[in-house]
Amino acid sequence: SKILVTGASGFIAVHVVHEALKAGFQVVGTVRSSDKGDYLTELFSKQYPGKFTYKIAEDLEAPGAFDDAVRGVQGVLHTASPFHFNAEGKALQALVNPAVNGTKSVLKSIKDHGTEVQRVVITSSFAAILDPARTPPVNYTEADWNESSPAESEKLGDKQASQPAYRASKTLAERAAWNFVEKEKPQWDLSTINPPLVLGPILHQVNAPEKLNTSVSSVWGALHGSKSEDDLPGALGCVVDVRDVAIAHVKALQVPEAGGERFAVTIGQFTQQGVVDVIHDASWIPEELKKQVPIGKKGNYNVTQNNLSGAKAEKVLGVKYHSFKSTIEDAL
Ligand code: NDP
């Protein structure tokens, strides 16, 4: 059958497209430019000839932007959403509105034109689960919601800083999706995938290191002098491999019991020390790079931080997580 992946050019989305093609789906992706669409067509053309096509959806918020793309597909994976921390002074416009209105717009297009759609999977985030008002360490699960960021965001408007605005954007977008389902009672059901920090190898088009997506750029930074001894051990937060996030999206389309459920996908908490340990242990990394990387105290991962359980995705979706070492090594 045929599915739609929105924002197909993104770090996570290209892996999602790849896993969907592997699973035998025909995939339509939306992208913002033909350059990005052509890159993807070329990327998948040899292994999956004719199975990937793209449509342009330039503006997430434009009414009817996805009308054309949802026609004739049986599943929709909505990943497109701004993820960066460069929105100071225009946080609503740059982060919150595209996330929330983009989600509403996709769902409206499905309602109007996606008559064959049976399931919608939305890329949400740990940001919609973790409540910054709660003091760490908290053991989070899918039952938790970020209760404080939406109100904070509403109060601050454009004046909010990028990080809290991003958290609000993901919380409000996911809430909007569940509210849509409750109100409209559509023929399809909804699942959300809620990853924390996503790392691992990249397949998407990146022309220069400074153009790397937000999460992977932190690994690039760690290898190129962005960390000091003072940053170690330091919390990294919870982590997951992009390949596992991609499989979770595809399984969430296929597994009947996934309908109506949120799925945290993660191997749990890690530390900055963990990243530098992987770098120093990798014999193939040149010494001139390793010289810029602090050593800290190998194996000292003792940090008080929040945790997130990825057990439900293992059980219901059958996700088998990559190790932290392979996630970081393959990103490097
Ligand atoms: P990327 O920045 O690589 O991908 C974001 C995607 O959304 C791209 O396809 C991008 O298009 C598109 N997009 C962003 N802003 C707009 C906009 N205003 N209008 C139209 N399209 C837009 O990031 P990720 O792959 O990491 O993120 C994908 C999803 O995963 C997001 O929903 C993000 O919130 C979520 N997520 C990511 C995590 C991570 O650690 N990476 C953790 C948890 C959740 P273009 O390529 O043209 O820029």
From TrEMBL:
Pfam families: Epimerase
Keyword Oxidoreductase carried by entry: yes
PANTHER family hit by this protein: NAD DEPENDENT EPIMERASE/DEHYDRATASE, STEROL-4-ALPHA-CARBOXYLATE 3-DEHYDROGENASE, DECARBOXYLATING
Family label: Belongs to the NAD(P)-dependent epimerase/dehydratase family. Dihydroflavonol-4-reductase subfamily.
InterPro entries hit by this protein: Epimerase_deHydtase, NAD(P)-bd_dom_sf, NAD(P)_dehydrat-like
Domain NAD-dependent epimerase/dehydratase: 3-265
Keywords noted in UniProt: Oxidoreductase
Gene Ontology MF term list: oxidoreductase activity, acting on the CH-OH group of donors, NAD or NADP as acceptor
Disordered, as annotated region: 140-167
Keyword Mitochondrion in record: no
This protein's name: NAD(P)-binding protein
SUPFAM superfamilies the UniProt entry points to: NAD(P)-binding Rossmann-fold domains (SSF51735)
